[in-house]
């Protein structure tokens, strides 16, 4: 998601310098008019705003800490916006460590998938100080449509965890409905159209309908990443004493799908798990 987000920042008039480990994405950044850096340290050294977008907490820590990391090379007063989906505690710890260096931090995970990133219509849930949020608002508005400060550091990650819980349960319900409809001999395309127009309609159903119809599971958001996110939400919920009876079941179904070798597929591939349970050879 980082590539289209970078491109939207360039379109909005920002000077964007970027670094990643994937050469093709560096080439893409250069083609879009951005500047390619040779390291994290080089990318952040003169930046007013630093955005990180990596898969999980270990990668955030690898980018942020150490002699070549963000905290040792960003200038005091810089604003670090971490848009990765990680544990709330990782965000809280990062904000504290950055504060010791005079660096401001917002946790700002997003929802909307690759399509939302391309279209600049992401939902951005933010944790941190109001003044920092206000300063970052123009940047967020270049990337998303719904931008909300949810509370202190870590709050954005907590809301993102809840988002991933809702999305996973919703995909699972849609997948079960698809198998039920097909086994009942109903015109699936017609059924999904009418369901999408009623109370059963959802962003998940709208965005994933073609995945279900065409069995197209090219990844927009991979099962591997949703597995990681379900681990975050179940752990965070356990910490605060919030039961997740349905979420826990779906988390196990996601884990099962990953164990069967489908981790690189889009999370709409939960349909494959339901098909296997129904006796289909997938």
Automatic annotation (TrEMBL):
Which catalytic residues are annotated? 160
Q: What is its EC number?
A: 1.1.1.60
Keyword line: NAD, Oxidoreductase
Q: Where is the 6-phosphogluconate dehydrogenase NADP-binding domain?
A: 1-151
Q: Which SUPFAM superfamilies match?
A: 6-phosphogluconate dehydrogenase C-terminal domain-like, NAD(P)-binding Rossmann-fold domains
Tell me which stretches of the chain form a coiled coil.
Answer: none
Q: Which Pfam families match?
A: NAD_binding_11, NAD_binding_2
**Signal peptide coordinates:** none
Q: List residues of the 3-hydroxyisobutyrate dehydrogenase-like NAD-binding domain.
A: 154-273
Source organism's superkingdom? Bacteria
- Gene3D superfamilies recorded: N-(1-d-carboxylethyl)-l-norvaline Dehydrogenase, domain 2, NAD(P)-binding Rossmann-like Domain
Q: Name one GO biological process term.
A: glyoxylate metabolic process
What is the enzyme's main class? oxidoreductase
Molecular function GO labels: 2-hydroxy-3-oxopropionate reductase activity; NAD binding; NADP binding
Which family would the database say this protein is a member of?
Belongs to the HIBADH-related family.
Protein name from the UniProt record: 2-hydroxy-3-oxopropionate reductase
Name the species this protein comes from.
Streptomyces acidicola
Lineage here is: Bacteria, Bacillati, Actinomycetota, Actinomycetes, Kitasatosporales
